[in-house]
Amino acid sequence: MKVRAFEHGLLLALAVVLLSIASVSSAEEKAGWKNGTSLAATQEKSCVRDTAFMRRNHMEVIKHARIDTVRKGVRGVDGSLSECIVCHVNKDDKGVPIPVNQEGQFCAGCHQYVGVSLDCYQCHATVPTH
Amino acid sequence: MNNTQDTNQKRRQFLLKGAAVTAAAVAPGVMLHTAVVAKPLGEAVTDAVRWGMLIDAAKCADGCDSCVQACNDENGLDLLQKPQGQAEDLWDQQIPKWIRNVKVKDNLSGHVTNLPMMCQHCEEPPCVDVCPTTASFRRADGIVMVDRHLCIGCRYCMMACPYKARSFVHDVVEHKLTRAPRGKGCVESCNFCVHRLDDGQTTTACQDACAKEGHDAITFGDLNDPHSEVSQALKEQSSTQIRADLKLNTGVRYRGV
Amino acid sequence: MMKKIYFREWGLESRSYWMLLVVLAAIAAIGGLAALYMEHNGHWVTGMNNQIVWGTPHVFAIFLIVAASGALNVASIGSVFNKTIYKPLAPLSALLAIALLLGGLLVLVLDLGRPDRLIVAMTTYNFKSIFAWNIILYNGFFVIVGFYLWTVMDRKMKCYYKPAGVTAFVWRLVLTTGTGSIFGFLVARQGFDAAIMAPWFIVMSFGFGLAIYMLVLMDAFKRDQRPLGDAIMRKLKGLLAVFVAANLMFMVTFHLTNLYGTENHAFEVFIMLNGGIYTALFWIGQVLIGGLLPLAILFHPTLSISRGWLTAAAVMVVVGGWLTIYVIVIGGQAFPMAMFPGKTIIESGFYDGVDGMAASYIPSIPEVLLGLGGVAVALVVTVIGIRMLKILPISLADEVADPHASA
Questions:
Q1: Which residue in C37, C50, C335 has the most chain B C-beta atoms within 10 A of its own C-beta, making it the best mutation to test that interface?
Q2: What is the CA radius of gyration of chain C?
Q3: Under CATH, which number does the domain B51-255 receive?
Q4: At the topology level of CATH, where does C7-340+350-401 sit?
C-alpha cells in the first residue's frame, strides 16, 4: 500500500511539474508574440475557434464572416470583426479601451511583428462602440 | 461535417504554411484539436421578404428634418467634420447625405409638397448594373447597398442613379461607429438601417424619428407580406414611384407627390 | 515601284533628348504628386463633389483614351485598307495609341477613391457593367496593338501582319464604342442617354487621334531634321478635315435628336443658351475651336499648305476636343436631373437643382495637374519609344513617301 501511495505521490508531482513547465512555455509563446496582453485571455473565455487555429486562419474566418454579414445579412457570426474587437481590446488604467490597432496591442502587435498592414480600421471602429 | 472541416483546415494550413512559418513554430498540435462546435450561424436573408417604404408627403411637415437628423445619428454621418481649410459651401456639396429634404412646387397649381428623398431600393437598380466590381448589389431582401470591401470609388453608380441617392466619402473618417463602418474613398447610401433589420428590429431610424415627431409620414415593412402595415397602406390608397417611367420598380413609394 | 522605306531610331542629339525627357518626366512626376495629395487627403481637396462626381481628371482620361484609339487609325488605313502611303506611318501610330491609352488609364485609376483596390477591379467583374467590359477592352488593346507593332517592325512576323492589323482595327472600334457607351447607358441623365453617343465617340476619336498624330509626327521629324514631304501631309490634312466635319455633323445630329424629343428641350436650352460656362464652352470650345476654325484652315487653299497653320489647326482640334469632352461630361452632370416632371424643386438639402439651377464645379489645381501628368506620361512613352525603336522612317520626303504624287 505504501508503495502505491508513493507512486501516486510521484505521479502527482510529475503532473504538477509538467503542468508548470507547460504553463511557463505557453507564457513564453505569448511573450514571443509580444502581445500577451489580450483582455480576452484574462476573462477565461475562449476564442471563436481553437486558439492555435485562429492564429493562422483568423483572416479566413473574418473574410467568411464579412461575406456572410454584408452580402447575406447574417449577423452574430463567429468571425465578426466587431466581436474580435469586443474580446481582444484592452483597457488602460482608467478603464478606457485602447484601440486594437495601436502599437503593441493584441491585433496590431502581432501584425507589426509579421509585417501585415490592414486597411480595415479606415472604416471599422477600433474600440467597441455602438 | 467534422471531416470536411478538418480537411479544409489541413488545406488552409498547407496554403498558409509559407506565410505563417513563425506561427507554426510556436503552435504545434493544431491537428490534434477537435473542431470547436460553431455557434448557430444565423440565417441568410431570402427573397421571401422585400423591404419597402411608403412616404406620405401630405404628412411630411414643412421645416421638419428629424428624419435627416436621425439618419445622421444612426449611421454616424455627422461624425464627419469639415476638414480644416475647406470652404464651407464646397464642403456642404461634398458631405454625404443618405436622406434629404426636398420641397417641390407644382408648376400649374403652385401646390407645395415636402418629401424626403433617399435610395429608392429599386428592383432593377441602375447602380448595380453599372458597378464594375459587384460592390453595388441588391440583397435578396430587396435592400440595395454598397459592399464597401469591394468598392473602388469609381463613382459610376452615382452617375447612374436617377435619384442622386448616393454619396462619396470625400474625407478621412476619424470617428467611427461599430454598427455603421464607413471610410474615405467609397460610395455609400441609405441601406434601410440594415444593421437594425438584421438584428431583428423592424423599423428604420428615419421612420422612428418621424413617428416620434407625431407626423407618421413614413411606413416601413415587408412588401411581400400582404398583412404588413406598409402593404396594407399601399393597397388602400394610390401611390407613385418617382420616375416611374424608368420602370425600376422602386421599393420606396410616395403618396401625395 | 516604290522606294524601300527605312526606319531608324530617333537620332536627336543626346542633350536635347534628355532635356525633353526630363521636362516631360517632371510634369509626369508633378501629376503623380498631385494624385498622392488627393489620395492622402481624400477628394475634398478637389473641386469634385456629390453632384459633379466625375471632374477634370475624367475629362483628361476620356480624352486620352478616345484619342488613343483614334491614333491607331493611321495604321489601320495602311494595314486594313491597304493604302500604301500610310504604311510607313504605322509604327508611330501603334506606339502613340499605346502611349495615349496608358496615360489616360493612369489618370482614371489614380482618381479612384481607392486606387489601392485596383486588384479588386482586376479580379471581381460584374459582366453587366460596361465599365468592367472596358477594363477588359483596355487590357486587350495593349496586348493586341503591342503585338501588331511587333508584326510591323519585325520582318519575321510578316505573316501575322494582316490579321493583327485587322484585329487591332476591330478591337479599337469596339473599345471606343465601349467608352462612348459608358455615357449612353446612363438612363437617368438627359445629357448622356443617347444611343448616338457610341458612334459619335468613334468619330471624335478619329479626329482627336489624328490631330495628335500629326502634331507628334511634325515635331519629331522637325527635331530630328528628317524630311517630311507635302504629299503625306496633304493626305493627313484631308483626312483630318473629313473627321472634324463628321464630328460636327454628329454633334448637330445629337442636339437635333434632343430637340425632337420634348423631354430634352430643357437640356438643349441649357447647353445652347443659358448654361453659363457650359454654353460658352459649347459655342467657343466645341463649335468654334474644335470645329469651324480648324475646318476653315484645313480647307483654305493657301493656309492649309503652311506647316504653321496646319499645326495650329491640329492644336485647335485637340483643345476643342478636350473642351467637347468637358461639356459632355461635366455639363451633362451639372444639368439637374428631372426627378419631378411638372414640378419645380424650390428647396433641397442636396443640391437637386433648386429652381433649375445647375450644380457647381470649379476644377482644382491638383485635378488639372493629374490630368497633365497623364498627358506627360503618354509623351514620355512616345519619346522613349521612338528613341529606342525603329519607329520613324528616315524620310517621308515626297519622292520616298509617294513617288506618284505630282508635286
A1: C50
A2: 22
A3: 3.30.70.20
A4: Formate dehydrogenase/DMSO reductase fold (1.20.1630)
